[in-house]
Every structure is written in structure tokens, then in C-alpha cells.
Design a protein that fits this description.
mainly alpha
């Protein structure tokens, strides 16, 4: 029943779910990396090893993940086409539901 409801909303439920979870994980890792840089900024530069592990590598990770997350969120937004806007409807397990709702 849940799959049928989700299938009405989206043609590709599984890939949309995977992209959503990926974007959520990228957001979480970016926030943690930025907070690590801010929190350890004063004490990290006592040695190169702590600076590398507490500030430099998390900062580089955040600088990489933030643009990737923005691009993937934009691509997921562009891919999100409602089922009533798609031209041919593929046969699925919930085609009867789609004929009612779409």
C-alpha cells in the first residue's frame, strides 16, 4: 500500500529515495565537518597531526561535499516530474491506482 502511494507520486520511488538519503548524508557530514573546524580551530594548530585531523581534512571534506550536495539536490529537483506530466506511463504493480489518481 505504501509503495502504491509513493508510486503515484513518483515514477522512480527507489532512485528518488536513494538520492534523498544521499543528500541527507552529505548535508550531515558537511555540518559535522564545519562544526569540527569551528570547534577545534584554537587548539588544532599545536601540532601538524592534530591540525590535519581536526581542521584541514574536515575543511577539505566540507568544501567538496557542499557543492556536490547542492548539485545533486538540483538534479533531484529537475528529475522530479509528477506522474501526470510524464508522457507514457510504464506498467507497474500500481497501474490501477495511477489510473485513478493520475
Amino acid at each position: 500500500m505504501i509503495y502504491c502511494v509513493l508510486d503515484v507520486v513518483s515514477d522512480s520511488v527507489v532512485s528518488d529515495s536513494v538520492y534523498s538519503v544521499g543528500i541527507a548524508i552529505m548535508t550531515y557530514y558537511s555540518v559535522v565537518a564545519i562544526s569540527s573546524v569551528v570547534y577545534f580551530w584554537r587548539t588544532a594548530f599545536r601540532s601538524w597531526r592534530t591540525a590535519m585531523g581536526q581542521v584541514i581534512l574536515p575543511g577539505i571534506g566540507a568544501l567538496i561535499l557542499i557543492p556536490v550536495g547542492v548539485v545533486e539536490a538540483f538534479r533531484a529537483q529537475v528529475r522530479a516530474v509528477p506522474c501526470w506530466a510524464s508522457a507514457p506511463r510504464s506498467s507497474s504493480a500500481c497501474s490501477a491506482w495511477r489510473s485513478v489518481w493520475c
